[in-house]
Structures are given as C-alpha cells and as structure tokens.
Recover the amino acids of this structure.
C-alpha cells in the first residue's frame, strides 16, 4: 500500500540531509511501527509523506497504492487516503471543531467525486464516534484544539481519523504527552479502526504505546535510515536495552 | 500670515542669538542642517507630531528660567568605575573631566575636532539626523545639528571595558545649551554610555550612534530629578547586521522632557531595545517619542515605557514600528503603560504599527489605570504601611522597564534612585 | 447546549466553504438598465435647491442645505488618512438620479418597472418585501415566511419604498425615507438632524448635508421594542452618480432597535463617490444595534473603478444607561474612510464597536472608531479585525478618550491584523487620551501573517488552500461575526471568503 523507496530528504533552507535513503513498505491491514532515538528523522518522514513545506526531496520515491505521493499537494494526498495524526496538533482560534471536521470530510469526498455527507448523517456519525473517544459535545463545539489538554488534542486527532476513514494512517508520537488512561483511550480508538484495507505507520520513541497498539512489524530508525527491522520483539528489546545496543550492533 | 510663514518667522527670531561654528570638514554638514531647518520652520502646536506636547517653551526665544536645584546627593553613577566627562550648562569642564583617552577608542570634543582640517566624523555628523527628518520632521534636531556648541565624538574599535559617563551640570538658571554627540562603533566594538544630570534651564541634545555589524551599544541615562528644566533630546541610531542597541532612560520630574529615539535596523538579525521609566509629580510633562524602522530580515525591536504620574503630571507616548516590505521575520514589541496615582494626572498615547511585510510578529499594548486596590489591600493586611505598599507596587509596575538594563549594577543604581524619589514624593 | 443546536451554526459555516467554491467574481456586479432621471452634473446652490425641490422639502430644509453648501465651499478635503486616490472632481458627478418609474408611485404590479423588481431579487430581498417595495397594494397582508425584516431600499439617490410601514406604525415606530420624514415629521427632524454630526463636522459630512438626496429615518417611541429588524439596502446603479444618503435614528427612552444596512454597486471602471452620514440619538435606557455589511464594488483586480466610500457615522448616547453597538463588515469599496463613533455622554452608557475590514487587490481601507467617554461609569469595547491581501493597504485608526469627568470608566480595545501575501500593508494608529485615574484603558494590537501550520493542518485534512485560508480567516473574525444578527452573519461569512479570492497561490 505505502511504498517508500530510497527516500532522501534535506531541509530546504539549509543543506542538511535528514533522510538518507529510507526504504519501507506498509501492506494493507498491517501495523508498522518506527522507533528510534530523537533526531533520527522519524517526524521528518511523516511530514515529507504528508507534504509539509520546508523539505526538499533529493532522491527516491513514495507512493500510495501506486500513486506518486510526492507529486501531490497536501490536500490531494489527504484525498488519496493519507492521514497524519500530528505530534503537536495546531490550534485554530475561532474555527469550530465541527465546522472543521465537516469541511474536511466534504472536501475529501468532493475531491474523490463522492456525494457530500448530509448534515444529519454527519451529525449522527460524529456523535457516535465522538462518544467512543469520550469526546463530549462541548469539545466538538470549541474551536479546533484551542484550550485542549494534551490528551484531548490526541483524542481529537483520532476522531478526525475515524471521520475521514483514510487508507493509510501515520501516527506521529501520538503517545507523547499522554497519561496511562488517555493512552488507553487513544489506542482503543486506533485499534477500532484497524481493518483489512487499512495500513498504519506508528512513529514512537517508546515501546509503551506498542503494548496497546500491537504492531506487525517494527523498524528501528537512526540517522536518517532504517537500520533494523523485526517483529514486535524488537520493540521489547529497545525497552529493555535502549537504543545504544542496537545501534552499536548495526554500526 | 499662514501657518508656514509663522513657522519661518518664529524660527528667524529663535535663531537670532545662535551661530554656526566654523569648521573645515563640518561646514557643509552644518550648512545643510541650517537649510533643512529653514525649510521646516518651528513646530506649531497643531502639528500632528506635537499633538500631545506644546512646543511653546522650546520655541521661545529665551530659555524659560529654571531654578537651580541642589539635590545634596552624589551623582547616580558615582560608584561606577568610569571615564568621566562633565559639561556645565553645556560648557565643557576640563577640571572636572577625566583625560579624554581610553583603550579601543578615540574620544574628543566636537569643538576641538572642528578646528582640524579633516575628521572621521565628517561623514557622520548630521547624517542620521538628516535621514530621520522623513517621514516626520524634527526641527529641533536640525537646529541642534546646525548650532550645537559642543559635544563629544567617540570612535570605538574594540570592546571598551569602562563606561563613558557624561554628567550634565546646571549652574545658571537661564542657560540654554545645545550639544551634539557622534558615536561610531566599528565592527564588533562595544561601548556603554552613561549620562546623567539636568544640563541646563533649556537643553537640546542630539546623539547620533552608528552601530556597525556585530557591535553593541548600551546606554543608560538619568535626566536629573525634581528640576524645572526643559529638555528635548534625540537619539538617532543605525544598526548593522547582528548588532545590539539598548537604551534606558530614567526621568524623575522636569518641567518638560521630550525624548525622541529614531532607530533604523538596517542589518539582518539586529536587536534594538528602548526603554524608559518616568515618574512625575506636579508640574511634569514627559514625552517619549520613538520611531523604529525595520529594514532588514530577522530583526527584533522592543519598546518598554512606564510612567507613574500624580498631581497633574502628564505622560505622553508616541511610538511607531515601521516594517518595510522586505523586512521579513520581524519581531516587534511595544508596551506603554501608565499608573495614575491621582485624579488630576493624564496619559496620552499613540502607539502605531505600519507594516508592509507579511512574515512578522508585531504587537503593541497600552494601558492606563490607577493602582490595584486589591493588591494594595493585600499588602496592608500583611502589615505593610500604605505608603510603603504603594511604593512597592509602583516599583513593581516600573520593573519591566528597568529590567531592560542588562547590567545588574546599573539597574540596581536606578532602582535605588527610584526608591528615594518615591519616598520623597508620597502624597 | 445539545449537538442539534450546534448543528445550526455548523450549517452556516458550511456555506462559507460552498461560497468559496462557487462564486468567482463580484456577485453584485450587474447593472440594471432602467431609465433614469438626472439632475445636471456638478454641485452649486441651484442643484442643492433642485434636490430640495424634488423632495418637496419645506423652506427651512432648503436653507439648512444651502448653509451647509456655503460652508463646504470653504473646506478642504482631509488628507490624514492612509489612502491614496486621484483627485476627485466634485463637479464631474451627478448629485441626483432616480428611476423614471419612481416619478409617480406605482399603483399596481403592472406599473412597476420589471427591471426594478429583478434588482430587488438579485439583492436577495425576500419576495414579499419585493412586492411591498414595488408598492403593490395588499402586499402587506401576504403571509411572510420566517423572521420579518422591514426594508427601506435606496436606489441611487432616492428611497424606492419601505416595507411593513403599517405594522410598524401600530407599534408607534416610524420607519420611512428621510425625505418623507422631513415632510411628515418636521418636528423630529428639526430637533435631531445635525445634532450628532454638525453641518460643519467634516468635508464629506458637510457635502452630504448640502446634497443628501434621501436615506432612512427611524423613530422608536419611549419603551418600545421595535417588533422587527429594520434594514436599508443601498445601491448605486447609475453611472457617475454620487450617492449621498442620510440616516437618522432616534431611540427614545427605554426603546430598542436593531438596524441593518447593506450596500452594493455595479462593476464599473470609473470610480464612484459615496458620502453618507448616519446620526443616532439614544436616550435614557435605550439601545441601538447598527450592523453594516458594506460590499460596494471594490474595483477590479487592477485597481480600476470601485466606490470611494467616505462615511461619517456617529451615535450619541445622551441618556443614562443608553447603549449602542456598531458592527461592520467592510469588504467592498476601492477606498474606505469610515469611523463609526460613540459619544458616551450619559452616565453608565455603553459603546461597542466590532469591525471586520478586508482589503484585497488594490483596495485601501482606513477605518476604526472613536470612543469619547464623557459620562461617569461609561464602558466601551473595540474589537477590530483587519485583513490585508494583494497589494491592499488596511489601516485601523481609533481614538479612546477619557475626559476628567468620566470617572470609573472602562475601555478595552483589541485590534488584530492579518497579512496574506508580502505586497500588502497593515497599519494601526490608535490614539489614547486618559484624563482621570479612576478609569482604565487597555489597548492590545497584534499583526501577523496567516499561520502556515494552521494552513498545513487544514490541507492535510483535505481542504485546498483557498478553502483553508477562508476557514482560518473566518476563525480570526469570529468575535466580530458573532456580534452580527443571524441573517447578516451568514452573508458576512460568505463575503469574507469571496473577498479573499485570488489572494493565495
């Protein structure tokens, strides 16, 4: 589904290479995790895939179901089914959460040539999905992420994911800033979305999130490359021994 | 007679007693300033730029009389190891001044230098003042450039450890002084300039500061306390790449003070901070007029002005941040606040933003109000006498401006002065 | 609040987004081909008398106009605003134009120029009100759908009709054209006209005093809550025509009225002049809400044509506890020069000013407010949101003054500017004058660009750039949009999006 081949990326403003040839394939229905120390390029990978400004792709490719992602505008990537749950979801003052969601849902539907969702249908679905994430009416009414706690912001990201029903979900450090209960809630939200047709790429620094969202494949990223790939046991190894041993081993 | 004619005819009367000192290298600069002045005339009370401050006493032919005042206390920077320069009523006092020499700098009197055939200041004298005449005219600055009788010329080539302190004494109750300084900091140079004292019955002082790339200029001044003098002062500064300019002024009474500061950030990543704390009791009119132009990328400017006013005192703030079209990544901040301690005092402000670049973060805030009664009550309930509690809260209010002084030694001296003044001026 | 209630508002926001997609040019840029009756070009005492005569005015009114004209000839155009435009030739304008079909009031539908009816329709005036405006007998009794809004439509220089007059009359409310008020209620007009904006107030107000051709008049008697919202639609149609309307609103003791004003003009490549005066008098315990959606033609993307909009609006809170609220959405006009002000004379009176000013392409807006605190315990609040795009210049200019007598008064000002693109300008020029210490004044202003992270976030969720900008800008304006009556809020949100078209990418 998501296919990344020898992806090389530099910062646009300075001549600094961040990704030095990343190879990765996420199949439909699978959960891949990327772990790695700070500064290894994990978040950069998520931004480049979703099309954020400020990065220059100097080599390689990335495609979703055969469609070249790197050629598309951010909104076209979204319409193609790529979703990024941000590490730091931005606050948008004055824009109601519901308005935002509905605008996004219908923009994507329209881009895909689908019928827009009616107000009644939209309301019904939001209400249902918000409930499972313990998002109350008040949170839906408030401006996007404004005054939300860390946990509320992440739950809101998962709600958006549930509403937009993407093919490929990237979760960027979704566990950061969450306490145990919030992590559980968010993980349940993610797990509920796991199905045959959907791929996940879970970026995390710690193993603990992977206790809740069980990965099929674990990659270790360091210095702009994927240096080791294995099963869930690899995450446990990191948990026990830290990154130093693995990095020393592959060096 | 139309307004334009009135300005000019008033000017002719005003400059009757003034003369342009002769100088080989400076004659052209002086003459150009005379021409600038002639084309402008004197300010009129209805001028937008004099909206809140009546220029009458500055326009007057004779300096209004200002009683001599002996504060019976040592000068504010007495305890600071410094190079001392003293002017009395605008006249250089050789006996009271130190030798004009120091490492990493040359320092000389303007009147001495003007006797030479050529001088490094030939390209500097009046240059920033001339540029600073647009978009707003500043006739008294042109008058200063044209007729200044003396001043100091400082050229700094490296880090100067000892601050240069200029003390302005006042000994004649009708003195009318005009001084003009030029300070040029070469690349990477550093200087701290201190100024203190009331200077004269009427004082017109201009200071042009050239801050080259990566140079740093620190300026702390006090303008004498409880004095009847009228003062109009100018700081014109040009800032190069990664340079630093920081200026703080304490004003404690004075019949009329208009401090103008005109800064241009011409090099990328330059920093300019201008701050002022002024306290006025009774016949006090204090005006801070600041114009900061951002003309380079990634510069930061801060303006912090605090005023404490009582017994009919007036505080004025006119501050402008102009961001030119290509001055992206500008960070401009401006705050002007006044604390009115009784019903008669007033605060007049015009904080302006004029912005032509989009990638900027600029803000200004302005507030005016009385002392926080709840805080006052809280302190009193803990046993602090009301007078003292008021002083404490007033100092806390002024702290944001005083904190702009980088040197703790100097800011402590300023706070000490403020404490003394507040104690003497309790209702 | 339940989710169902939330949904109502969400539906409104959706329209913004739809509007962005569907509308690509100035929506009101059509011209109605109706035969017009013009006075000769230029302004002089004869024209002033002619206007007075056409309106069938009493002599005192003609004299009032002539004295205004006399003063105007001695005045200069103000130059202090940050706007640049070619010199206006005041003698090259028509000062009076009206549809020929209005020379006599229509007796039946057949008499009404169908093009005039079509105009109303395009303006979005509800059908029933179209009928009433056209003067169809019995129209007042036809069932109206939804909420009632009484409409006075001013077409070029003259009021072409006012709806719901009878129903308003039952409540004691007078809502009619000012020309009618001068004839029918001279005692009220004499007492209040020029009492808030004096004849010699400023260049444009003085010109207006001399040549105003029509406008609206409102009187709400003591204790009456106006049973419906009152609305005026202004439209400049004829070429080279200056529109000088005059609005006078009097809210007597303990009364309340909400007044809406909408403005449109056809696209033309020569600039047209508009200089209106609005005076509001608010007596003890009365409250007036005045909302404007100003969408005069802004000129094309090269800066040709558009309306020069020089407006003087002022409310006088004469009585204790009186209240006024100005809300404006200024998206149109090539040049806007407008400072709706509040004189807070009565003790405990309150003034509020909420403003959205959008300047795109070559538009120039210099707008803001004056809050003049004279009475004790008076309160004012200013919320201004300025958006600049293209090569436009947008200035907030304001004055807050606390007089020595205005003890314990409060002002809060929030003034935010948003820049879209690096060729435009955003400026803030507030004047603050505090002359007593028991009053508190707070002023905050910020200037920034549209946040890239916010735009990226929206785009990652599937919105295109224009949609994302419209959404973020509407969020930026929320505090002001919320102050508008529901009907206007919807229109305003769409306008925000439409006005910013072409500003990104």
């Amino acid at each position: 589904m998501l296919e990344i081949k020898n992806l090389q990326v530099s910062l646009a403003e300075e001549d600094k290479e961040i990704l030095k040839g990343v190879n990765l394939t996420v199949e439909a229905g699978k959960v891949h995790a990327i772990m790695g120390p700070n500064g290894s390029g994990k978040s950069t990978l998520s931004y480049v895939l979703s099309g954020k400004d400020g990065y220059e792709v100097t080599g390689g490719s990335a495609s979703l179901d055969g469609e070249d992602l790197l050629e598309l505008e951010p909104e076209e990537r979204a319409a193609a089914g790529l979703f990024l749950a941000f590490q730091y979801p931005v606050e948008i003052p004055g824009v109601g959460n519901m308005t935002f969601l509905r605008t996004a849902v219908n923009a994507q539907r329209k881009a895909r040539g689908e019928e827009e969702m009616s107000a009644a249908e939209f309301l019904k679905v939001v209400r249902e999905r918000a409930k499972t994430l313990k998002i109350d009416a008040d949170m839906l009414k408030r401006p996007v992420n404004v005054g939300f706690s860390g946990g509320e912001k992440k739950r809101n990201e998962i709600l958006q994911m549930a509403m937009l029903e993407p093919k490929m979900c990237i979760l960027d450090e979704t566990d950061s800033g969450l306490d145990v209960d919030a992590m559980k809630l968010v993980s349940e939200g993610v797990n509920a979305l796991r199905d045959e047709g959907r791929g996940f790429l879970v970026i995390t620094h710690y193993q603990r999130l992977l206790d809740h969202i069980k990965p099929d494949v674990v990659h270790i990223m360091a210095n702009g490359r994927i240096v080791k790939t294995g099963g869930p046991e690899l995450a446990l190894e990191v948990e026990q021994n830290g990154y130093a041993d693995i990095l020393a081993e592959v060096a | 007679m139309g307004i334009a004619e009135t300005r000019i005819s008033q000017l002719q009367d005003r400059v009757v007693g003034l003369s342009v000192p002769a100088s080989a290298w400076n004659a052209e600069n002086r003459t150009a300033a005379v021409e600038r002045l002639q084309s402008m005339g004197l300010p009129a009370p209805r001028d937008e730029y004099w909206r809140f401050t009546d220029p009458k006493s500055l326009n007057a032919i004779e300096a209004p009389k200002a009683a001599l005042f002996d504060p019976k206390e040592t000068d504010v920077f007495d305890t600071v190891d410094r190079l001392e320069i003293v002017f009395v009523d605008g006249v250089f006092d050789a006996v009271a001044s130190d030798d004009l020499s120091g490492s990493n700098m040359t320092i000389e009197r303007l009147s001495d230098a003007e006797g030479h055939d050529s001088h490094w200041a030939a390209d500097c004298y009046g240059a920033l003042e001339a540029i600073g005449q647009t978009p707003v005219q500043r006739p008294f600055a042109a008058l200063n450039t044209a007729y200044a009788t003396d001043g100091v010329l400082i050229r700094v080539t490296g880090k100067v450890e000892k601050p240069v302190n200029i003390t302005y004494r006042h000994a004649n109750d009708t003195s009318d002084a005009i001084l003009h300084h030029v300070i040029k900091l070469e690349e990477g140079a550093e200087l701290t300039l201190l100024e203190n004292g009331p200077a004269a019955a009427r004082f017109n002082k201009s200071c042009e500061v050239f801050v080259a790339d990566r140079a740093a200029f620190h300026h702390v001044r006090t303008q004498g306390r409880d004095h009847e003098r009228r003062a109009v002062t100018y700081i014109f500064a040009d800032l190069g790449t990664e340079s630093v300019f920081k200026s703080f002024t304490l004003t404690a009474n004075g019949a009329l003070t208009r401090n103008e500061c005109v800064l241009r950030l011409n090099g990328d990543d330059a920093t300019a901070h201008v701050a002022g704390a002024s306290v006025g009791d009774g016949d006090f009119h204090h005006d801070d007029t600041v114009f900061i132009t951002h003309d380079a990328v990634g510069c930061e400017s801060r303006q912090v002005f605090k005023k404490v006013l009582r017994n009919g005192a007036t505080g004025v703030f006119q501050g402008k941040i102009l961001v030119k079209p290509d001055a992206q990544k500008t960070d401009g901040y401006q705050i002007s606040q006044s604390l009115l301690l009784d019903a008669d005092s007033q605060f007049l402000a015009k904080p302006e933003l004029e912005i032509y670049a989009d990638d900027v973060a600029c803000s200004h805030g302005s507030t005016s109000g009385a002392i926080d009664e709840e805080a006052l009550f809280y302190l009193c309930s803990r046993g602090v006498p009301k007078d003292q509690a008021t002083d404490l809260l007033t100092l806390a209010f002024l702290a944001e401006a005083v904190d702009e002084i980088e040197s703790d030694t100097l800011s402590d001296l300023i706070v000490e002065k403020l404490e003394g003044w507040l104690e003497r001026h309790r209702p | 609040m339940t989710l169902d209630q939330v949904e109502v508002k969400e539906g409104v926001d959706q329209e913004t987004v739809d509007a962005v997609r569907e509308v690509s040019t100035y929506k009101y840029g059509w011209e109605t081909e109706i035969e017009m009756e013009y006075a000769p070009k230029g302004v002089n005492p004869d024209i002033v008398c002619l206007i007075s005569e056409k309106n069938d005015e009493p002599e005192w009114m003609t004299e009032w106009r002539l004295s205004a004209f006399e003063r105007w000839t001695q005045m200069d155009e103000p130059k202090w605003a940050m706007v640049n435009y070619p010199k206006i030739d005041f003698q090259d304008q028509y000062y009076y134009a009206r549809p020929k079909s209005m020379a006599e009031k229509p007796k039946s539908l057949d008499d009404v120029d169908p093009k005039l009816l079509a105009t109303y329709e395009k303006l979005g005036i509800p059908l029933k009100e179209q009928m009433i405006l056209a003067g169809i007998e019995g129209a007042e009794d036809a069932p109206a759908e939804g909420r009632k809004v009484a409409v006075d439509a001013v077409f070029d220089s003259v009021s072409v009709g006012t709806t719901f007059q009878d129903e308003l009359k039952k409540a004691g409310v007078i809502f009619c054209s000012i020309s009618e008020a001068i004839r029918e209620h001279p005692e009220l007009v004499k007492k209040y006209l020029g009492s808030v904006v004096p004849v010699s107030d400023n260049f444009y107000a003085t010109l207006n005093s001399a040549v105003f051709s029509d406008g609206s008049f409102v009187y709400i008697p003591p204790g009456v809550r106006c049973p419906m919202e009152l609305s005026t639609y202004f439209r400049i149609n004829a070429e080279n025509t200056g529109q000088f309307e005059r609005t006078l609103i009097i809210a007597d003791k303990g009364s309340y009225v909400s007044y809406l004003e909408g403005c449109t003009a056809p696209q033309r490549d020569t600039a047209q002049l508009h200089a209106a005066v609005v005076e509001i008098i608010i007596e003890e315990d009365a409250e007036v809400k005045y909302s404007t959606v100003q969408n005069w033609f802004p000129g094309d993307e090269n800066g040709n044509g558009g309306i020069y909009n020089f407006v003087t609006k002022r409310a006088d809170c004469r009585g204790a506890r009186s209240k006024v609220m100005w809300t404006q959405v200024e998206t149109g006009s090539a040049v806007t020069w407008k400072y709706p002000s509040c004189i807070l004379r009565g003790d405990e009176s309150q003034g509020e000013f909420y403003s959205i000013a959008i300047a795109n392409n070559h538009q120039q807006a210099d707008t803001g407010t004056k809050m003049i605190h004279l009475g004790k315990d008076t309160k004012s609040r200013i919320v201004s949101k300025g958006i600049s795009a293209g090569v436009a210049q947008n200035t907030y200019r304001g004055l807050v003054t606390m007089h020595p007598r205005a003890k314990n008064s409060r002002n809060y000002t929030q003034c935010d500017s948003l820049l879209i693109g690096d060729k435009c300008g955003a400026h803030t020029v507030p004047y603050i004058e505090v002359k007593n210490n028991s009053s508190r004044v707070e002023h905050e202003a910020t200037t920034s660009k549209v946040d890239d992270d916010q735009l990226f976030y929206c785009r990652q969720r599937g919105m295109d750039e224009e949609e994302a900008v419209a959404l973020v800008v509407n969020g930026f304006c929320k505090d002001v949009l919320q102050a508008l009556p529901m009907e206007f809020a919807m229109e305003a949100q769409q306008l925000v999006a439409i006005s910013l078209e072409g500003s990104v990418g």
Observations:
- Residues 3-36+46-438 of chain C form one domain.
- Residues 1-26, 105-109, 137-147 of chain C have pLDDT under 50 and may be disordered.
